[in-house]
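Please check what follows.
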Amino acid sequence: MTAAAPSSSPTVIRPTLYELFRAFAVVSVSGFGGALPWARRKIVEQNRWMTAEEFNEAFALSQFLPGPNVVNFSVVFGSRFGGVAGAAVALAGLMGPPLIIVTILAMLYARFGDLEMLGRILIGITAAAVGLLIAVVAKMAAPLFRARWDWAPLIAIAAFVGVAIVQWPLPLVFVVLAPISIACAWMTR
């Protein structure tokens, strides 16, 4: 049994199992330092399988699940469009190619890891990954700030300030802000 594509978004296209595998395989080999920017670009901007808001909602769910967010997202997204088979092929597409690449790179690193030039290359890749992550966070936040200026962006800003600036532990910020966010959502419905 497969899940139906959401009826609230008439422009959303339903991917096949092969397209799910291929999309997540492309995302996985494109995402040095993080696959989220590439997943959003592939799913929302290029293939239009989800709207920006739907992507944000699915990714938010993925953050609550244990494990890496993008891995969780591949399972959530795959199951939405292909049930258990969709979840399996999306996960295989996301995890398979990097497993092969990392195994080969580990063998090469064991042989050539002490080269100074390799360290400089890795520093450059890290800088690029940080830039991509900042760009995708800005793209994901834009709908929140454009659609309305109510409690949701304020909760996001409070979480950022608490964790990044004040450097409170994430569990503490979560325990404080989650009930506030739930109460605000409940009152506005």
Observations:
- The radius of gyration is 19 Å.
